From TrEMBL:
Domain of life: Bacteria
Catalytic activity annotation: D-fructose + ATP = D-fructose 6-phosphate + ADP + H(+)
Cofactor dependency: Mg(2+)
Pfam family, one: ROK
UniProt protein name: Fructokinase
Transmembrane segments: none
E.C. code: 2.7.1.4
Keywords, alphabetical: ATP-binding, Carbohydrate metabolism, Kinase, Magnesium, Metal-binding, Nucleotide-binding, Transferase, Zinc
InterPro entries (alphabetical): ATPase_NBD (IPR043129), Carb_Metab_Reg_Kinase/Isom (IPR051804), ROK (IPR000600), ROK_cs (IPR049874)
Family: Belongs to the ROK (NagC/XylR) family.
One term of GO molecular function: ATP binding
Length: 289
């Protein structure tokens, strides 16, 4: 039997087909435009597997409605991407493909991917952040994706501003939240050019590391997870992880005895496939419920 995965990101979609062992058999990526255009490509991708896929796991950009009893379950809700506002994602998929759908956020799916097949494998608790166009976080504890009245919005936690940082932030909702200060577009706005063009030894990276270390500090105190994984485009700066570890160590002092930082703070083992593999694993989980 085969399973489908859809990593529905704000910038691009990744569709994939995989097997029970979470091996990816086919993968296709295309830009996120309008629901009409993008979903047409999704349906096209899965068309030739019709009848052979048992279920599909979806990790979507949000906010999304994940409350089964809600009238708008399966919808993307008040996203700044206007074309996708109040789009009934799960309904459209069910209509087109007639298979059970597991529905969660993109970062929850990536977290679940690392939990099943990456650095979280064999562990009971995994926290995952993506630092990219936005910042998002997800948690898996004892095999369950953590949720309450809705999914967490960890990327908007408030931070203490670094004393050398005058930047006003880019989040329209909050002053001094993680996404507003440390996402890729926040870096781009500070410098007037893409984050990937800032040289690796630029002093800014210690400020970025300070913000991400605050995030890891808060996360450690809230969840005491066995591992924290930091993914997304900004984490492709190779020096950043070690700067975050150092800053985290200074902030934490000796208060909490965490696992050794080389095993505690990591970038995703599955690299850019964490989301898709997580979606495949969630597709399988859907049938075992
Ligand atoms: P998305 O969040 O849209 O799914 P990414 O996780 O790739 O996609 O994040 C894109 C963001 O990451 C952009 O703001 C981009 O400038 C930034 N980025 C990509 N590569 C790097 C890099 N090597 N160093 C710093 N920032 C990067
Ligand atoms: Zn915010």
């Amino acid at each position: 039997m085969l399973y489908g995965g859809i990593e529905a990101g704000g910038t691009k979609f990744v569709c994939g087909i995989g097997n029970e062992q979470l091996q990816v058999i086919e993968r296709k990526s295309f830009p996120t435009t309008t629901p009409e255009e993008t979903m047409e490509q999704v349906f096209d991708f899965f068309d030739k597997y019709k009848g052979n896929i048992a279920s599909i796991g979806v990790g979507a950009f949000g906010p999304i409605d994940i409350q089964i009893e809600s009238r708008t379950y399966g919808y993307i809700t008040n996203t700044p991407k206007l074309a996708w506002q109040n789009y009934h994602f799960v309904g459209a998929l069910e209509n087109a493909l007639s298979v059970p759908i597991y529905w969660t956020t993109d970062v929850n799916a990536a977290c679940y991917g690392e939990y099943m097949a990456g650095y979280g494998k064999g562990k009971n608790s995994v926290l995952y952040y993506t630092v990219g166009t936005g910042v998002g976080g997800g948690a898996v504890v004892d095999g369950k994706i953590v949720a309450g009245f809705s999914h967490p919005e960890m990327g908007h936690m408030l931070l203490q501003r670094h004393n050398e940082d005058q930047f006003e932030g880019i989040c329209p909702f909050h002053h001094d939240c993680l996404e507003g200060l440390a996402s890729g577009p926040a870096i781009e706005k500070r410098f007037g050019r893409k984050a990937q063009t800032i040289s690796f030894d630029h002093p800014y990276w210690t400020i970025e590391a300070d913000y991400l270390a605050q995030c890891v500090y808060n996360t450690t105190l809230l969840y005491a997870p066995e591992v924290i994984i930091l993914g997304g485009g900004v984490m492709k700066q190779p020096q950043l992880l070690e700067l975050i570890r150092q800053s985290f160590k200074e902030k934490m002092g000796s208060y909490v005895d965490t696992p050794t930082l080389e095993e505690y703070l990591l970038t995703p083992r599955l690299a850019d496939n964490a989301g898709l593999i997580g979606c495949l694993a969630l597709a399988i989980k859907k049938l075992n419920h």
